[in-house]
Amino acid sequence: MNRNVISIVLGGGRGTRLFPLTYTRSKPAVPIAGKYRLVDIPISNCLNSGLNKILVLTQFNSASLNSHIKNSYHFDIFSKGFVDILAAEQNVENESWYQGTADAVRQSMKHLEKYDYDYILILSGDQLYQMDFREMLDFHIENGGDVTIATIPVNAKDATGFGILKSDDEGNITSFYEKPDYDMLEGLKSEVSEENKHKGKEFLASMGIYIFTKTILKKMFDEGAGDDFGKDIIPSSIGKYKTLSYQYEGYWTDIGTIESFYEANLDLCLDLPQFNLFSSSPIYTRARMLPPSKINGSYVSKAVFGDGCIIMADKIENSVIGNRTRIDKGSTIVNSYVMGADFYQNTTEIVLNDRGGRPNMGIGKYCYIEKAILDKNCSIGDNVKIIGGKHIPDGDYGTYSVQDGIVVVKKGAILLPGTHIG
């Protein structure tokens, strides 16, 4: 079956609900699982599906994302594959930046003319899932789709936070409602598996993953269908073009808030996490050539470690520890994500900091950290105590912020010895 596809990853979002993690980087560049970036997920899904023509559209805070993609994805000279960046640009025909997801693709279509493709796969850069796109493409082709939307069954509680699609028995989408009110849901149930019916998951939520037949998408853009896929393009396609729902039954989560980001990372520590890092479909990322992690005298339970860590903590429990993390003796880390560091401090700097009473990069002696996210390159002094929870009001507090009771220490922040938060 012809799968002549080009994949487009939308990587330009501001990600305001993930602040302060998105203060210096775009959402797809946020580190996840100790050693990856969010953008590695859609790119890896493409590569594992045999789709190796990938473009990443960037706009906001893109330097970190551009650097990561440039250093991570290389193909040999005999391969026709690529992972390239298409940065937002102004030109004589259009002086405005991207006005939405669809506008980003519309403005980029002129750059796609040099590629041979029949279908366009549109992906978000900030979701966690493992999916074989070949199955979705086959569904699109076999059923003569103009547009196919990946959907996932959700319950009534979650349905009000998504774009909800109603489909008929043949998978044709008949209506679409963006974040419907609870009292509208009764008429929006779709045909789902018996297992999902028993779980109360009878509503189909859009996953923000789309396949368009090239000629149809060009036609929609020529008709001026709007600037956003979810708000404009998809609703306008229903009833006019053959718009299909492809139901996905696996794990999928949208990393839209600090709380969802925190929960997705800590879920990786479970005995049987919903997102399986240890599968035959690897997640690709930058090869950093770091040494193995070293752990000395620590009690460790349900923890995930990146590479190049030096751990002397008393206890690490239900936590993700990122690359190059240093945790000194007597410290306890519980229910937290420590992102680690971009580089190692040299011995001279460490000695000078010790003499001057300045915290070194990493976590010092006798600290207690619970329900927190520590962004990269933080310097946490000795005897620092961070205890997140609903007892702390949400807000920005300079070196850290609090959302949904989760304390987020900002990138490069310095917490002096004896600091107490919570």
Automatic annotation (TrEMBL):
Domain Nucleotidyl transferase: 7-268
Protein's UniProt keywords contain Nucleotide-binding: yes
Highest taxon, organism lineage: Bacteria
Principal EC category: transferase
Entry-linked InterPro entries: ADP-Glc_PPase (IPR011831), ADP_Glu_pyroP_CS (IPR005836), NTP_transferase_dom (IPR005835), Nucleotide-diphossugar_trans (IPR029044), Trimer_LpxA-like_sf (IPR011004)
CDD domains found in the cross-reference section: ADP_Glucose_PP, LbH_G1P_AT_C
Keywords attached to this entry: ATP-binding, Carbohydrate metabolism, Glycogen metabolism, Nucleotide-binding, Nucleotidyltransferase, Transferase
GO biological process: glycogen biosynthetic process
Keyword Transferase (UniProt): yes
EC number, as in UniProt: 2.7.7.27
One MF term in the entry's GO annotations: glucose-1-phosphate adenylyltransferase activity
NCBIfam families with a match to the protein in the record: glgC (TIGR02091), PRK02862.1 (NF002772)
Family stated for the protein in its record: Belongs to the bacterial/plant glucose-1-phosphate adenylyltransferase family.
Name listed for the protein in its UniProt record: Glucose-1-phosphate adenylyltransferase
Organism annotation: Chryseobacterium pennae
Lineage: Bacteria, Pseudomonadati, Bacteroidota, Flavobacteriia, Flavobacteriales
